[in-house]
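A reminder from the course coordinator: this example appears on the midterm review sheet, so study it carefully.

Given structure:
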């Protein structure tokens, strides 16, 4: 349940369709580990084959209309690789995980590298309904969901999130959602600021309700989520507690991810760890990396160079030290601080998504 300015926003379940998976693995331990991993991602295991004959009988009965992802190992008794290859179709993806150990990061990297969800018109739909959907898709714009996260150690996520939201709210309505279940702070920073904007709507998720999903009820076209520091991704995808479910749900709906670190050596080490684990996410998100509160010392410049080397060709920005960002929120204008100018550049990227 969401609480904001005296309003109650009821949580609704995510409308993202489950991915249906068939496993074909003889080794019980490997199959169980994979099934639990995929279940934690919200995927549905519709059949577990323990021999090739059982697999083919199920696939024949299922037909080609349903979207199917088959994950197998060649240890499957009676496996006929040629026949399995012939079963590939626009609605079927077949993924081999031979030689991949029971490791969440490695498994998801292998699956993600081969998974391509096709844009297929359902043959059971009439041409008239397809035309209406195509026209509606052209007219309506997909809601933008920006998620702000980063390293541990208070790199400045909440301050940046509220500055970004305030900047964007001068162009359109923005919902700013505090989804940091460990340390909610957006209401505090909003209360300290001397900027009031009717286009900016702040909501705080209630941890007592143990929310496990984010619906789009009462959300504007643009919503920004502050989820706090992100736990190790291999833990997030296998953790079945509601906090991990909430993070997974938000990441599923995210259209742009913003990852922030402080201008310290330790924070950059944590950034490298995140980048190494990022392939564990089943889909690649557009991501913006931020180095926050960087000064002008020799050490600061060295850290900036290291930051640039770590993030490579990805979108990245360096936010300079600015003591006023806690109470004087960023707004579009001619006499902007260096911090606000960088916020404006990031806002421009998000606006053009």
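Designed residues:
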């Amino acid at each position: 349940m969401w609480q904001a300015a005296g309003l109650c926003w009821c949580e609704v379940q995510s409308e993202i369709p489950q991915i249906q998976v068939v496993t074909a693995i003889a080794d019980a331990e490997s199959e169980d580990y994979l099934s639990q991993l995929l279940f934690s991602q919200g995927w549905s295991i519709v059949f577990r084959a323990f021999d090739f004959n059982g697999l083919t009988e199920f696939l024949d009965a299922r037909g080609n209309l349903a979207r199917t992802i088959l994950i197998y190992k060649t240890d499957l008794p009676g496996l006929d690789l040629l026949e399995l290859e012939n079963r590939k179709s626009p609605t079927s993806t077949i993924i081999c995980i031979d030689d991949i150990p029971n490791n969440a990061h490695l498994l998801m990297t292998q699956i993600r590298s081969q998974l391509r969800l096709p844009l297929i018109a359902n043959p059971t739909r009439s041409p008239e309904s397809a035309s209406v959907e195509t026209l509606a898709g052209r007219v309506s714009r997909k809601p933008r969901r920006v998620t702000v996260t980063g390293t541990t150690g208070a790199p400045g996520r909440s301050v940046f999130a509220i500055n970004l939201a305030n900047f964007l709210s001068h162009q359109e309505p923005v919902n700013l959602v505090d989804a940091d279940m460990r340390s909610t702070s957006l209401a505090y920073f909003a209360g300290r600021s001397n900027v009031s904007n009717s286009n900016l709507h702040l909501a705080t998720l209630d941890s007592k309700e143990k929310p496990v999903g984010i619906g789009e009820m009462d959300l504007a076209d643009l919503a920004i989520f502050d989820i706090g520091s992100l736990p190790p991704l291999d833990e997030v995808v296998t953790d079945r507690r509601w906090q991990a479910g909430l993070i997974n749900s938000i990441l599923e709906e995210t259209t742009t991810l913003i990852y922030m670190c402080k201008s310290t050596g330790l924070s950059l080490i944590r950034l490298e760890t995140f980048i190494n684990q990022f392939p564990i996410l089943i889909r690649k998100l557009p991501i913006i990396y931020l180095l926050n509160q960087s000064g002008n010392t020799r050490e600061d410049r060295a850290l900036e160079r290291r930051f640039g080397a770590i993030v490579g060709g990805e979108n990245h920005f360096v936010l300079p030290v600015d003591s006023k960002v806690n109470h004087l929120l960023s707004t579009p204008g001619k006499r902007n601080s260096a911090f606000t100018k960088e916020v404006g550049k990031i806002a421009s990227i998000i606006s053009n998504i």
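Residues 139-351 form a domain with the Rossmann fold fold (CATH 3.40.50.300). The chain has a mean pLDDT of 79.
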